[in-house]
Amino acid sequence: QMKGAIFDLDGVIVDTAKYHFLAWRSLTEELGFEFTEEHNERLKGVSRMTSLDILLEIGNLEFTEAKKLEMAGKKNRLYVEYISQLDQSELMPGVKEYLKRLRKRGVGIALGSASKNALFILDKLNIARMFDAVIDGNKVSRAKPDPEVFQTACHELGLQPRECVVFEDAQAGVAAGKAAGMQVVGIGKPEVLREADLVITGLHEL
Ligand code: G16
Ligand code: MG
Q: Could you say which cofactors this protein requires (predicted)?
């Protein structure tokens, strides 16, 4: 019996991956190397600084820590510009309906995201009030596949891991949910999200 539902943000609630992509690409253009949508797959669910490290590895470039912080800051300012235009129309199919249904059933609802912009995004989508707990990149120190983000969410809901279900689109996120001892619903392709207990194409399926 599910007492708590913990949702990833990017790829589950809203497709912000395309804005991350555009913002990172403006950086890689400046640095003078190609960055494709395929490369972008590797950045999903990964923290901002780790994303930058992966990018610099693709471009075969190295920078000082200070320079990297500056580049990540610049990328984030551009990203925030994009997502400040977000509205409800960009919610993924079935999200609103499913959250409403869970609330009606008395299921606790939490967000478990790597993003430091999570609250801003929930606000733009006008769904912040539907969450009983929001755990984001500002609240955790260990990134997925570490279970910290989901453990903290479960704790804030006042529940046990076995009472919580995680909804995730990224491999690292599915692994994090399993490591936390929770049931995991994968959103995406079964061949990619092998570790998930169930894989669906979107919340509209439930
Ligand atoms: C999201 C995205 C990642 C992004 C990360 C950090 O994670 O999937 O691509 O790098 O957040 O975002 P920010 O730069 O806004 O802090 P999630 O966990 O919501 O899928
Ligand atoms: Mg995700």
A: Mg(2+)
Q: Active site includes 146? A: no
Give the model confidence (pLDDT) of 127-165 as tens digits.
999 999 999 999 999 999 999 999 999 999 999 999 999
pTM of the model: 0.94
Amino acid at 105: R
Say how many residues make up the chain. Answer: 206
Interface pTM, i.e. ipTM = 0.93
Q: Is 161 in the pocket of ligand 1 (CB under 6 A)?
A: no
Q: Which of 181, 139, 146, 176 is nearest to 164 (CA)?
A: 181
Strands 164-168 and 4-7: parallel
8 part of the active site = yes
- 5 three-class SS: strand
Looking at ligand 1, which atom is closest to the CA of residue 50?
Answer: 10
